[in-house]
Amino acid sequence: MSFTPYQLKMAKCEFCSEFYTANSRAPILTSCGHTFCRQCVENSYIVNNVYTCYDCQEPTLIEGNGLKVNVGFLRCLEMMKLLAPETVYYQTIIPKRAEVAVDKRQQLVESITAQLTEVVFQNGNDRLARDIIKEVEQNMSDYADRIENRDNDHYS
């Protein structure tokens, strides 16, 4: 499935240009009717539970139960398959100090997976992702062969 430039623009937060997701970047509706992703609203300057709209500067009171998700817009994005998946790429993660060096390999795998997901999401083309995966596998196989040959030459 391919998307028009307008559809892709609509599926992104106007402030940060990241795709909306169901949770971490859920579309948040302001009292003035504008919509921004949860991370942009949460990371903005909020004083006395009042958010000032990025677009028109109108204040929005953040009530006791928090930010209000633009549910209708979220459902439209889901139905049009324009809602980005929740992946590490879309989430702000602050690792604990001990976890930072624990598994660099897993972080690399998650990063590559997230980038491939982004390619598929933007292009709506699973075949392109499969082609990229095959090319990466071939490159990694070639690289592993070079390392093995270098090690064999070193110990000969």
TrEMBL record:
On the tree of life, the source organism's domain of life is Eukaryota
* Keyword Zinc-finger in record: yes
Residues in RING-type domain copies = 13-57
GO molecular function term, any single one: zinc ion binding
Matching entries from Pfam families are given as: zf-RING_5 (PF14634)
Q: Which UniProt keywords apply?
A: Metal-binding, Zinc, Zinc-finger
PANTHER family to which the protein is assigned, alphabetical: E3 UBIQUITIN-PROTEIN LIGASE TRIM-21-RELATED (PTHR47156:SF10), PROTEIN CBG20824 (PTHR47156)
Protein name in UniProt: RING-type domain-containing protein
